[in-house]
Amino acid sequence: MFARRALAGGSRVLEYKGRLITHAEANALYDGSIEEGHTFLFDLNEHYIIDGSQGGNSARWINHSCAPNCRAEVHVDQDGDALRDRVIIEALRDIAPGEELTYNYGIVLDVPHTPRLKRLWACRCGAAQCTGTLLQPRRRVRRV
Question: Are 127 and 35 in contact (CB under 8 A)?
Answer without folding.
Answer: no
